[in-house]
Amino acid sequence: MKVVNLILVTILSSFLLLNNISAGQNVQTVFCALLIALVIFAKNDLNSRYMVVSYLMVFTLGKIVFYPIEMYVYPNFNSLIQNSAAFGMSFLLDILLIYLVRNRMLFSLMLTGGEEPSVLEKNYTEGPLFGLLLGYASIDLVAFVENVVRNLEYFGFSKEFAKQFWHVTFFYDYYEYLKGTLMALSITVLYMGVVIRKRQMPSAA
Question: Which of 112, 114, 135, 194 is the most core-located residue (most Cβ within 10 A)?
């Protein structure tokens, strides 16, 4: 429990610092606040707390790695490099979160030193969350490919040929809406998972 609390405090401090440094993003701030509220709501249920803290860890890591992209890549490179860096990094973070969720029991045992048998119990959020995370990864991967198709002139194709793909912007235009929807669904699934676990483990309430 002490390890989980330490991780939570570190994540919160890092996020607040980075949020003050970079431009404010209300949706992400609300998402982070809701995740923190869920960690508190889960109380002693390490099973559910691990799932939520995994999201927080990757979310905060994303804030850290995107800071140099926003400060250095965006002002100095063309749209191909800018969007490739953003979508590519988002995809890698998606893969990391998928790995953490898929290996929940292993990492939970490591964090608790094998002293909390509750981490071995089934968590009904794993399946739905895994599906949502595949959605995250799919959106980022397709957005990455779409960005390449939209910038073929940088790969040696003639401008006349490349410009017919300049209008391929669906995922670029709706990226925030698509990812925002998945974020909202993730919060809903995590909340439902905490509620179910609390009903199954009244002593943890």
Answer: 194
